[in-house]
Amino acid sequence: MAKRKRLAPAQSLELAREFGGDMPLETKSMPGLSAHPAPPIARVAGDASSAAALEELSETLRRARAEGRMITPIALTQIDESYLVRDRVPVDDEDMASLRNSLKARGQQTPIEVVALGDHRYGLISGWRRLQALRAIGRESVNAIISPPRDAPDAYIAMIEENEIRVGLSYFERARIVVKAVEAGVFESDKSALQSLFSNASRAKRSKIKSFIPVAQTLGNALKFPTQMGERIGLQLSKALITDSAAPRRILSALSAAQPASAEDEQDVLNRALKNGLETKKEPTLPKPVKAKAPSISPVPGIHLSTEGDSITLQGERVTPQLYTALQMWLKQRG
After folding, report:
1. Which CATH fold would you assign to the domain 169-279?
2. Angle 184-232-284 (CA atoms, 0-180°, nearest 5)?
3. pTM (2 d.p.)
4. What is the pLDDT of residues 201-218, one digit of tens each?
């Protein structure tokens, strides 16, 4: 019986004919195929496919970064913390210690948000507390999301929204950022800043923030523990600062003299200053009514008689001690 020849796969044969190769027809493993270099057209097609895939990947990464969807490590020295007027005053040491311990144990779980300023510099939008904690524990870089360029109002709104969600702001801090945003020229007035920055807040909440604005404007630099100020005393301070022209000087003097070492001490100082203002405030005094004075008359020559209220006055050359004695006797007889 004649021995059958094992034929090579058609694809291999076609490639052999096309590129002029001498591929054996009878083989099981086709060792000659792996030994031959890839055909030129296959290499060109492979290189083109790799280049296209690399270009697509680069475009995807570029788009993700431009849209603020990619986390990038950035050196701490490249970040400008003063890009925005910060809405947070110095935070509690205990809270910062807890944050530092968390970063040491678990690393940075949430990126900060920055915006590119050019020349490898980045402006901080949100994440101030995380940035401070990373500096404190000796880290040299921070994971950040590089957001698309924003106009100033949008940047301030993004900063506030992030802190409202993650930390929560006191009424003093909310009022303070309104004041600082107006001072920086981002908004024209307290009203426009309040409505833009806290557009998602209820009307009642915006009203309370508005009430704290005089406190932030007048006492902002003098208070050591403003974030712990309660709503009640904040509203009382606001009313006093608006209605009593002497209140700003009195309260600032009390804070300067006391130098409170805790939030409780500071609140006691403020309460005393408010109480002193109420005690020393003088009620407006009404002028005393002027009693009508009757015109002088002369009942007899040499004596002039006039009355004013319940008083009778006698004047003249005939008003003598003898007349006085005679009047006494007359009154006794009348009595």
Report:
1. Arc Repressor Mutant, subunit A (1.10.10)
2. 95
3. 0.52
4. 889 999 999 999 999 999
